[in-house]
Amino acid sequence: MSKPNVVITRRVPRPGLERVQEACNVHLWDSDEPIPRATLLEWVKGIDGLYCLLTERIDDELLDAAGPNLKVVSTISVGYDHIDVPACLRRGVAVGNTPGVLTDTTADLAVALLLATARRIPESIDAIRRGEWTTWKPEWMAGQDVYGSTVGIVGFGRIGYAVAKRLRGFDCRILYFDPFPNQKLADEVGAIYSPLDDLLAASDFVTLHTALTPETRHLMNAAAFAKMKPTAILINTSRGGVVDQDALYQALTTGQILAAGLDVTVPEPLPVDHPLLKLPNCVVLPHIASASVATRAKMAVIAAENLIAGVEGRPLPCPVTA
Ligand code: DGY
After folding, report:
1. What is the pLDDT of residues 281-322, one digit of tens each?
2. Dihedral sign, CA of 221, 226, 228, 232?
3. Which of 77, 109, 299, 302 maximizes ligand 1 atoms within 8 Å of its Cβ, making it the mutation to test the pocket?
4. Which fold would CATH assign to domain 103-284?
5. Looking at domain 5-100+294-311, what is its CATH homologous superfamily?
6. Which of 54, 306, 318 to mutate to test ligand 1, by most ligand atoms within 8 A of the CB atom?
7. Which residues contact residue 53 at a Cβ distance below 8 angstroms, ignoring those fewer than 6 apart?
8. pTM confidence score
9. Which residue's CA is the closest to the ligand 1 atom numbered 2?
């Protein structure tokens, strides 16, 4: 029997690639840069399965181009806002993602970004490189304490929970907001449910861990920033679209909030001349929250298993259902 035909849209960690190659005929975009859209639309014609990244838009146009053989779209990410899931499911195309394995790696980075932003670490490094470290100065590069602070977690799923668990070690008071509060889980880490407005007003740090949906797009807008403390810091490791970046720029430049640490932006990459990159109180990372060698390899394998199950007509190990 001939093997199913699949497309992999980027160079992915070897354990995932090898697993797919055992079971499928692979057309690999063998590059670290994204496959051009026109090429992708050409390559997907008649394929059985698509292994994609969060940089590819999976919509009706692509599904039409692929045609009726397509059985599965497997993304090497937990987020799937780049995929029109209802459009896939309507056509009987299964969708898979990679939840779970990246939780702790992402939570580590969220806390690292929070600490780096609070304690002005990137700013300090830049200052040294510019030759501005002239002597020890009592107020130079003084930042905000994380220990004992109030941290508001927006989105209390796996990653929000893992962040709370870590911040307990800093003796933080943890508030959380989620449209589906899970107090049993929250009790394990001493997190207290708080309506969003109260959380914004009370928190020294607000950290975002929600999926990007129509409801959460620009959740952090001018009205939200107006509710925050002038000493507060925003951390975003979820999706750039959850934050209205123009409003954030205003908030950061008018002293409405103190600083922001962003692992995700709109667009990605952020152009080098983007106004946010010029602000000393805005730390921007290139969407690396899940980027440990081990975690990226695990994600690659789960995406492979989803793809293979899909092309073989079996239930996906990690299906996206809505
Ligand atoms: C995801 O998986 O959705 C992250 O944003 C990248 O790991």
Report:
1. 999 999 999 999 999 999 999 999 999 999 999 999 999 997
2. positive
3. 77
4. Rossmann fold (3.40.50)
5. NAD(P)-binding Rossmann-like Domain (3.40.50.720)
6. 54
7. 9, 10, 34, 75, 76, 77
8. 0.96
9. 77
